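Re: the 274-residue chain
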Amino acid sequence: MLSAAGSSAQTTVVAGSRPLATGFFDPTAFGSADAPVWFSRAAASGASVVRLEASWSAVAPQQPSDPTNPADPAYQWASLDLQVEQATAAGLAPIISLAGAPRWAQAHPIPKSSTPGAWEPNAADYRLFAQALARRYSGHFPDPLHPGIMLPRVRYFQAWNEPNLWLYLAPQWTRVRGAWVAESPLIYRALLNAFYAGVKAGQPDAVVVSAGTAPFGDPPGGQRIPPAQFDRILLCVSATLQPLPCPDPAHFDVLAHHPYAFGDPYAPALNPDD
């Protein structure tokens, strides 16, 4: 959670630069009955954006027959609609972060050890849902609870959450001829490109943000991939940042990372790719 604190000190802004935009992410507070209060406090603190966590499986528990149509009866948007309306009413720009695949959109069989929504999500289904999502919050879709009023426009959409962590995307590694190979960056590149295509089809001038990578990784075969290693594979560059062959380059507008620290924030990373 990040906020901008007010200060009486005079600030010098370099010509052509922009002040740091700050925002909040708190699914507990923003999903509660007191959400309007928390959105208002976030805005009063100087924040300009708010990240809203959307569950694909919660919005689409059943496979829709017309998946690019936001009005398909299989979709359950009410909770997300409310959060978007409350955030925009407080003057905050929402970033909708979409993760957690429904069972019908995952590869089967799903291992019992996998976190719900994480196992090999189907990129083609993700693209269709992303198109419906962007269309619903384009500023031109009718609010089902308020006839004659359109749902607010959302400009920022984020594809998944911490894809270098098994908790959100699996498998992270696969065994190939006795060696561990990073798998999740390849799965995620397909998801990201599908999400980008879907969002742009529903709202061409929307901004697509990549999933924020988790800050730490494990040795090969573990439950996490170090974020710098993950991004190099995602972006098809070598350890020295030289371009590598890439038949399907990653498409996005903003690259995201979660620079969290645990314990001492000044402690050096154990892994050079953390």
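Helices lie at 27-30, 35-44, 56-59, 78-89, 123-136, 184-202, 227-235.
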